[in-house]
Structures are given as structure tokens and as C-alpha cells.
Write a structure and sequence with these properties.
Blueprint: H1 21-27, H2 47-60, H3 74-86, H4 89-104, E1 113-122, E2 131-133, E3 138-147, E4 153-160, H5 165-179, E5 185-188, H6 199-208, E6 211-214, H7 230-241, H8 254-274, H9 283-296
Parallel strand pairs: 1-5, 5-6
Antiparallel strand pairs: 1-3, 2-3, 3-4
Helix pairs in contact: 1-8, 2-3, 4-8, 5-6
Length: about 300
């Protein structure tokens, strides 16, 4: 992933989280460009350096104020991080790359089926929207994801961990229906409907014209079991927490937490489109990647 010239005169050190020339050629044109004819002071730090700083925080999990001095100042990187969040730049880049990945895989850019799930994760001591998930015995927040059948993110919503799956499911399916009217089928686990409460299924069918198919785990199963369709979103959760900033929820606001998830997917999709090799942090991640490769491409 490193593009620095080993014997060159690079002023800045290259980190494994830095974008390569190929990735930058893909992402760079999608970021806003400063108009020199408009009033205001000229930019001191380039978009590429700002992006490298944001990716350094995402990949390493360090505090904004602790970014190395050879990257952009933390205040500059954070300001552009929040600016691009507010003006929809991150959403636009993410959606453009997802459409390209789907097209490269031979899929229509507009998805028709998706997978829904939620993940409770510990948060730092500060921030808003924190709660206790009694089922997982976790104090923090809950990430609600809807992904397509390739595991690519469609909608993310971050709430307090105390929000039940069915309540969070209604809110995120509302967002999904507004943004992706072509989606007609949703797979979900038993937490969204059981023998006592199937109101979410009825509500989605009546209000949103969505069919929710519940993929249940067998009562006789013991230990880990790969379930049809549900493993797709579980793999996406695995992709996310490989970024240390997402191993816990360190953000003060749920909106910034959602943005970090989108940036992680932008990085993943850009690497996939440019054929960049993944850099794993540990032997466990390398082994997980090997097993997923075998699962995706079984022997004939």
C-alpha cells in the first residue's frame, strides 16, 4: 500500500493507511476542489494529505490530536471530515464507488435485495446516545446495518445499545425505503420477529411494501453455525472492526460514528476496484481472509 520512493526526497513519511496513486486516481476526482476565483485563503494542505490523515485515524484508532506531525494538522483534517459529512461528500463518494463495485461484479447498481442486522459495541466514556444492551451485556451503542447481497453498505444507523432490534429496524428500514425504492426483499435474523411479536413484518409489508424473510438458527445447533444470507452482513461487521477506530465507538455523536463506517467502506471498495492487496494487522486476520477466500471460491 506504500507509494513513497524508498530513495527519494519525500517530505512526509508514508504510512500503510495512506492511499496509493491508483486509489487516489479513483477517489480524488470525487472530492470537492477549491475554486481559486472564489474569495478566501488558498488551501495549504491538499485533499490527498487530508484524506491520508483521516484514514490514519480510522485505521490506527488514535485520537485526532495525536496524529503524526508529518500529516495534516488534526484540526484541519477534522474540519474537512465534518465539512464533507455535512455537505454529503462522503455519501456521494461512497455511493459512486458502490455502484462501480456492483457493476464490476455484474450486478445492477440498484439493489433489489438486502440483509439487515445490528451489532452492539462498547463506546468510550463520553458522547451522547449511550445505553445498555441487556442481551449482550454491553454498555455503548448499536450499529444497525443494511447491506446488499455482496456485503456492501446501503444504510447505516447508530443508536444507543438499549434500542431494541425491532425498534431500530423500523427506523433504518424507513431510511432504506426512502433511498432505495428498488429493494423489495430483506433477510434478517430472529431478533426482528418471533412467535410473540411479528409486528415489524406486518408494518414493513403494509407501509413500505417490503418482504422480510427471517433466517432462523436451528434449535438443535451447537456452537458457531454459518447461516444462509445472514453471514453476508456478519462479514461486513468483520470488515468494519478491522479498523481500530471502529473496534469501539469513540465518537461523541452518532452521526460522526456513521460517517466513520462509510469511510471504512470507501477504503475497502476503492482497494477492491484498484486491485490493491489488503494489509492485515495480525495472523488471525490473515487466517480469516484465507477462510473467506476458500468459502467464496470453493474447489471445483
Amino acid at each position: 500500500m506504500c507509494n513513497c520512493k524508498r530513495d527519494g526526497d519525500d517530505a512526509a513519511r508514508c504510512y500503510p493507511s495512506a492511499v496509493t496513486d491508483e486509489v487516489w486516481a479513483l477517489i480524488g476526482p470525487l472530492l470537492p476542489v477549491h475554486d481559486p476565483h472564489r474569495a478566501g485563503r488558498p488551501r495549504v494542505y491538499s485533499n490527498r494529505l487530508v484524506l491520508n490523515t483521516i484514514l490514519f485515524v480510522l485505521r490506527t484508532g488514535c485520537q485526532w490530536r495525536l496524529v503524526p506531525h508529518d500529516l495534516a494538522p488534526w484540526s484541519t483534517a477534522y474540519r474537512w471530515y465534518r465539512t464533507w459529512e455535512a455537505d454529503g461528500t462522503w455519501d456521494a463518494v461512497h455511493d459512486r464507488l458502490r455502484d462501480q463495485v456492483r457493476s464490476a461484479a455484474g450486478r445492477d447498481p440498484a439493489p433489489t435485495a438486502a440483509v439487515l442486522d445490528a451489532q452492539s459495541i462498547k463506546s468510550s466514556e463520553g458522547g451522547t446516545d449511550r445505553g445498555f444492551d441487556a442481551g449482550k451485556k454491553t454498555t455503548g451503542r448499536k450499529r444497525h446495518l443494511v447491506v446488499d447481497t455482496l456485503g456492501l453498505l446501503l444504510v447505516v444507523m447508530v443508536t444507543a445499545a438499549s434500542v431494541q432490534d425491532r425498534a431500530g429496524g423500523r427506523a433504518i428500514l424507513d431510511r432504506l425505503a426512502a433511498r432505495y425504492p428498488t429493494v423489495a426483499l430483506i433477510w434478517a435474523d430472529g431478533g426482528y420477529a418471533n412467535r410473540v411479536d411479528t409486528s415489524l413484518l406486518t408494518w414493513a409489508a403494509d407501509k413500505l411494501r417490503l418482504v422480510i424473510a427471517i433466517v432462523r438458527r436451528s434449535d438443535d445447533a451447537r456452537g458457531f453455525q454459518v447461516l444462509p444470507r445472514r453471514w453476508v452482513v456478519e462479514r461486513t461487521f468483520g470488515w468494519l472492526i478491522r479498523n481500530r477506530r471502529l473496534a469501539r465507538d469513540y465518537e461523541r455523536l452518532p452521526q460522526t460514528s456513521e460517517t466513520m463506517v462509510k469511510i471504512a467502506m470507501i477504503r475497502l471498495m476503492a482497494n477492491r476496484l484498484t486491485g490493491q492487496a489488503a494489509v492485515w494487522s495480525s495472523a488471525a486476520e490473515r487466517e480469516a481472509h484465507r477462510r473467506l477466500t476458500i468459502q467464496d471460491h470453493p474447489a471445483a
